[in-house]
Amino acid sequence: MNEHVPAVRPDTVAAAAYAPAPLEPYTPAPAAVELPAERGPVVWVPDAYGRMVPMPKHLAPPPMPMPEPRDLTPLPLLDPIAQRFVGAGIGSGALAAGVGWGVGEVINAVAGFTSGAAMWIALAVLAWRMPVRAVADGRRGSTVHIRKAVIKRSHFHG
């Protein structure tokens, strides 16, 4: 089954005849003559390396549409809506601080009123309620007659 094949010596290889492959498949076919009138229009387009190469017009990519001009006016540093939000936040904070300060002032006024002014108001109300004739006569207050009767009875039950 396994048959041993002797090694080929180099002097016997040179003796063998060299038979090259046939060249018939590589012979050029007769070329047709192309006239300029038969050829379509050619356009030059850039390739991947930036060089301009010719290309039939029907195979060229469609031309790129011209973009519309951009508006290059400078934009504000902050968005106007953001500016409104910041202004509203600052305004409401100032309003809250003012309301808090006002409430504190009212509480301080009430505390001062109860300690000193209430006494003066009470004296003014008492003076207003005092009868007019007592002030006119120079006497104090209204006239009161007091009658004191002492009745003593002694009973002895003894």
Report on the architecture of this protein.
With 158 residues, the chain is mostly helical. It has a domain at 81-137. It is 39% helix and 6% strand. The protein contains three helices and two strands. It has helices spanning 10-15, 80-129, 132-137; strands spanning 42-46, 52-56. It has a two-stranded antiparallel sheet. Strand 1 and strand 2 form a beta hairpin. The model has no long low-confidence stretch (mean pLDDT 80).
Which characteristics define this entry?
158 residues, mainly alpha, two-stranded antiparallel sheet, 3 helices, 6% strand
Q: How are the elements arranged and paired?
A:
Blueprint (H helix, E strand, L loop, with lengths): L9 H6 L26 E5 L5 E5 L23 H50 L2 H6 L21
Keywords: Membrane, Transmembrane, Transmembrane helix
Protein name: Integral membrane protein
Number of strands: 2
Strand content: 5-15%
User: Could you tell me the radius of gyration in angstroms?
Assistant: 63 Å
Largest sheet: 2 strands, antiparallel
Rounded mean pLDDT score = 80
Span between N and C termini?
173 Å
- What gross morphology would you assign? rod-shaped
Low-confidence stretches: none
Organism: Streptomyces thermogriseus
Keywords: Membrane, Transmembrane, Transmembrane helix
Transmembrane segments: 85-103, 109-130
Protein name: Integral membrane protein
